[in-house]
């Protein structure tokens, strides 16, 4: 019986080793402070990540360390550890005090909790922070995901149009001038709006600010004196159903998946907190009346999406809003934003 017991124990240990080899070790949520090093941002770092098309790099030896990291802040110990070099993208308009606080590795997925302070409004991802995380040499990482947690809950002005962002897609590389009709309503802009924005635009949406030379992918503005109300048409959406609802409706309204992703990433945490939301998308005439756009050269297609919403404790009955899909041909301009109904 003793021999059988030992054989079973050996088999169990062998299966555990096989399982860990296949799936990678799983560790509990670990405070990150003792294992992480902030790496000063350089353009070369961003170029390396862009070139690889990844948000992280696993560093296993000094050759890769010297190739990608080149920091003297730490002396890596590759006899016992490997390092995950990752970037956190954030926007400088509404996110501050970005701080990775803990991590967990499960089934080869590294999940990093990132805490930050949130304010009203948003501009495009406009900066990155880079970190080097030390993990056990026997850990395996095939993916990195981030769990963003705001440490505050700002109370936003309901009469403000939040996060309108403008994308430009010319058919050829060219200089483009963008003017906002009611500039006296503007409260925040990025880059700084001074009677107009003047950029060099590429067909893939990349922009170069002609005043600073900085690369952008959108033009951000925020304005006050925007008033909206609950009408007899729109949509009433459960907070938990927000993601699917926005995916469907934003596609109908003409946004690409990338544009819709950015819309959803901003609005999802706000809308999901409510039991229900009344949602209505303003017509192009309503948007143009509030904030006219004057663009030179004149675009062939202009798509403007402005979502008005109001949190609800319980469901109300409204007539479902009929949405139309705009044409998207030639030089295309896309804008999206949202506003809380008081």
Topology:
Blueprint (H helix, E strand, L loop, with lengths): L1 H22 L3 E5 L4 E4 L3 H10 L3 E4 L2 H7 L12 E10 L4 E12 L2 E10 L8 E10 L6 E8 L10 E9 L4 E7 L5 E5 L6 E5 L5 E3 L5 E2 L2 E5 L9 E6 L3 H11 L4 H16 L3 E6 L2 H7 L2 E4 L4 E12 L6 E2 L11 E9 L2
Parallel strand pairs: 6-8, 16-20, 19-21
Antiparallel strand pairs: 1-5, 2-7, 3-4, 4-7, 5-6, 9-15, 9-21, 10-12, 10-18, 11-15, 12-13, 13-14, 16-17, 17-19
Helix pairs in contact: 4-5
Q: How would you sum up this structure, described in words?
A:
The protein is of the alpha+beta class and 342 residues long. It folds into two domains: 24-150, no CATH class; 161-340, no CATH class. 21% of the residues lie in helices and 40% in strands. Strand 12 and strand 13 (207-209) form a beta hairpin. Helix 4 (242-252) runs antiparallel to helix 5.
Oligomer: single chain
Rg, Cα atoms, Å:
24 Å
Number of domains: 2
Unreliable stretches:
17-26
SSE pattern, N- to C-terminal: HEEHEHEEEEEEEEEEEEEHHEHEEEE
Major sheet summary line: 8 strands, mixed
Estimate what percentage of residues fall within beta strands.
35-45%
- Overall mean confidence score, pLDDT: 83
Question: What general outline do the C-alpha atoms trace?
Answer: globular
- Percent helix among the residues? 10-25%
Strand order, main sheet: write it out.
11-15-9-21-19-17-16-20
The count of strands amounts to: 21
Number of helices: 6
- C-alpha termini separation: 76 Å
Structural class: alpha+beta
